[in-house]
Write a structure and sequence with these properties.
This protein has helices at residues 11-43, 47-51, 56-95, 110-115, 123-126. The chain is mainly alpha-helical.
Length: 127
C-alpha cells in the first residue's frame, strides 16, 4: 500500500529534474554507442588486428585500447543503472511514494532529493 504523497515536496519539480536527467543520460548513452560503432567500423573487419601484432609497441597500444573499452563498458552499465533508478523514481511519483525511504519509511530530506532525485533511501539507510 502506497503511503500518502509528501505534501512538503513540489512533485512536479522533481518529475522535471528526473525527466531532464533521463534525457541527458539517454543522449550520452546514444552518443557513446554511436562512437563505439564508428570506432568498430574504422578498425576494419579483422578483430585480431586491433589487438595483437608482432610489434611489442603495438601490443602495448592494444592493452590501452582494451582498458578503454572496459572503462567505457563500465560507464555504460553505470548509466543504464541510473536510468533504471530514474524510471523507478518516476514510477514512485505516480504511485505516491516518492521521497519516502524504502528501508525506513521516513521522508528523504529535500536536499538529498535535489542532489540525487532518484534516491530511494535516506543517507542513514543507504550506509
Amino acid at each position: 500500500m502506497a503511503q500518502p504523497q509528501r505534501a512538503d515536496l513540489k512533485i512536479e519539480e522533481f518529475r522535471k529534474l528526473l525527466l531532464e536527467e533521463r534525457a541527458r543520460l539517454t543522449g550520452d548513452l546514444k552518443e557513446e554507442k554511436a562512437e563505439e560503432l564508428e570506432e568498430a567500423r574504422d578498425a576494419g573487419d579483422n578483430e585480431l588486428s586491433r589487438y595483437a601484432t608482432f610489434d611489442p609497441g603495438d601490443n602495448a597500444d592494444s592493452g590501452v585500447i582494451l582498458q578503454d573499452e572496459e572503462r567505457s563498458e563500465l560507464q555504460q552499465e553505470n548509466v543504464e543503472a541510473i536510468l533504471r533508478d530514474i524510471d523507478h523514481a518516476l514510477a514512485r511519483i505516480e504511485e505516491g511514494s516518492y521521497g519516502i525511504c524504502e528501508v525506513t519509511g521516513k521522508p528523504i530530506p529535500v536536499a538529498r532529493l535535489r542532489a540525487i532525485p532518484w534516491a530511494t533511501m535516506t543517507v542513514e539507510a543507504a550506509e
